[in-house]
From TrEMBL:
<dbReference type="InterPro" id="IPR029070">
    <property type="entry name" value="Chitinase_insertion_sf"/>
</dbReference>
<dbReference type="InterPro" id="IPR017853">
    <property type="entry name" value="GH"/>
</dbReference>
<dbReference type="InterPro" id="IPR001579">
    <property type="entry name" value="Glyco_hydro_18_chit_AS"/>
</dbReference>
<keyword id="KW-1015">Disulfide bond</keyword>
<feature type="domain" description="GH18">
    <location>
        <begin position="22"/>
        <end position="386"/>
    </location>
</feature>
<protein>
    <submittedName>
        <fullName>Acidic mammalian chitinase-like</fullName>
    </submittedName>
</protein>
<keyword id="KW-0378">Hydrolase</keyword>
<dbReference type="Pfam" id="PF00704">
    <property type="entry name" value="Glyco_hydro_18"/>
</dbReference>
<dbReference type="GO" id="GO:0006032">
    <property type="term" value="P:chitin catabolic process"/>
</dbReference>
<dbReference type="GO" id="GO:0005576">
    <property type="term" value="C:extracellular region"/>
</dbReference>
<dbReference type="InterPro" id="IPR011583">
    <property type="entry name" value="Chitinase_II/V-like_cat"/>
</dbReference>
<dbReference type="GO" id="GO:0005975">
    <property type="term" value="P:carbohydrate metabolic process"/>
</dbReference>
<dbReference type="InterPro" id="IPR050314">
    <property type="entry name" value="Glycosyl_Hydrlase_18"/>
</dbReference>
<dbReference type="InterPro" id="IPR001223">
    <property type="entry name" value="Glyco_hydro18_cat"/>
</dbReference>
<keyword id="KW-0326">Glycosidase</keyword>
<dbReference type="GO" id="GO:0004568">
    <property type="term" value="F:chitinase activity"/>
</dbReference>
<comment type="similarity">
    <text>Belongs to the glycosyl hydrolase 18 family.</text>
</comment>
Length: 391
């Protein structure tokens, strides 16, 4: 009998785990349309069954404090992007607004009138183009005199947005618009930017950018998205995924609202000595990848080209891989590190995963020989289809 009950609760907790972790939020970027050849990525390339949520990056705040597109053809892209819902009616789409010109975002935040203008324009814009919600990608960039003020105003923005979304949802026959934020994973930025317990009340989920922890500025080859801190991190024990998620939780964010960020790209540097391990001197960004054309950032499919059967090294304490060839050094994620991160987030009861970005995975399957979207498909298999929970 006892054993029966244990078994039953066992099954129930497996079931609950599946239910609490059923989001896979994937970013689409408006600039992947300009890539050459097989790397060109348009909304038509998005598999509507891969993710539960798609986020379109990015919209901006314009000089009239309205939300606005940032690309000449955004409106056409919105329409093909949101038409993916005709194929999968369960798919949820959001538009992400970024504080690209931080001055304008700050002006919008600064008083009630401006915030109301932004909120009203957002509701109209989202409905007009058939999005299901808004994502705020913001961190406090102001001066030390304005930090406290802006932090408070950002909380107000979240609160007022949710109130307006609720009111609109009740007055229309629509389902209420979703409100989310994509936030920093760096302790000093978190401290100056977010009133965590307050914003957590208003947001449906919070995507923590657990990547880009280390850049070339630090002067050493370090992994940009480690799961744990490493022996090189004595002075920097917070710059890792584990610490960032725990910090958000400790400060009062409900774990089930927290999403771990998964990067489908690596950060690459040029080594400046004969050393090549983690922590080797490296002070400049590596040349752009042949397709993505950004210094120091290589997509997963470009990393496959780079590796070309070459050796992948494993950083044991941080649970992520790196590789080097000549003076090029790259820290990235692969199927193995994704699996370990997935297990971690399930064991800790975090609210699932978001991916930056769809176009950086080997979406065509052309480069890595692992099928299409190998990394995102792994997340889907383990998180959404619940493979890990049942095993
Ligand atoms: C809000 O800020 C704008 C500047 O963006 C200013 O023109 C306006 O007077 C302010 N409104 C209030 C009520 O303070
Ligand atoms: C090509 C490109 O980068 N297009 C736009 C995408 O959105 C950002 C806003 O974050 C714009 O600055 C870009 O111009």
């Amino acid at each position: 009998m006892n054993r029966g009950i244990t078994r039953l609760t066992g099954i129930l907790s497996i079931f609950i785990q599946i239910l609490t972790c059923s989001r896979l939020v994937c970013y689409f970027t408006n600039w992947s349309q300009y890539r050459a050849g097989t790397a060109k990525y348009l909304p038509e390339n998005v598999d509507p069954y891969l993710c539960t949520h798609l986020i379109y990056a990015f919209a901006i705040v314009n000089y009239a404090n309205n939300i606005a597109g940032s690309e000449w053809n955004d409106v056409a892209l919105y329409s093909t992007f949101n038409a993916l819902k005709n194929r999968n009616p369960h798919l949820i789409t959001l538009l992400s607004v970024r504080d690209q010109d931080s001055k304008q975002f700050s002006i919008m935040l600064s008083n009630w009138t401006n915030r109301q203008t932004f909120i009203k324009s957002s509701i109209e814009f989202l409905r007009k183009y058939n999005f299901d919600g808004l994502d705020l990608d913001w961190e406090n960039k102001g001066t030390s005199e304005t930090h406290l003020e802006e932090k408070m105003k950002f909380t107000l923005l979240c609160k007022e947005l949710l109130e307006s979304f609720l009111a609109e949802g009740q007055s229309n026959k629509y389902v209420r618009l979703i409100l989310t934020a994509t936030v920093s994973a760096q302790k000093e930025v978190i401290e100056r930017s977010y009133n965590i317990p307050e914003i957590s009340k208003y947001l449906d989920f919070i995507s923590v950018k657990t990547f880009d922890f280390h850049t070339f500025k630090h002067g050493f080859a370090r992994h940009h998205s480690p799961l744990y801190s490493g022996i090189q991190d004595e002075e920097d024990i917070n710059s890792n995924t584990d610490s960032a998620l725990k910090y958000w939780r400790f400060q009062g964010a409900p774990p089930e609202k927290l999403l771990m960020g998964f990067a489908t790209y690596g950060r690459s540097f040029i080594l400046t000595s004969s050393q090549s391990g983690v922590g080797a001197p490296a002070n400049i960004l590596a040349s752009p990848g042949p397709y993505t054309q950004e210094m120091g950032l290589w997509s997963y499919f470009e990393i496959c080209l780079f590796l070309n059967g070459g050796a992948v090294q494993w950083i044991e304490d941080q649970k992520v891989p790196f590789s080097f060839k000549g003076s090029d050094w790259v820290g990235f994620d692969n199927l193995r590190s994704f699996e370990i991160k997935i297990k971690y987030l399930q064991e800790h009861g975090f609210g699932c995963a978001f991916v930056w970005a769809l176009d950086l995975d080997d979406f065509s399957g052309y480069f890595c020989g692992q099928g299409s979207y190998p990394l995102v498909n792994l997340l889907k298999k383990w998180l959404i289809l619940g493979k890990i929970c049942i095993n």
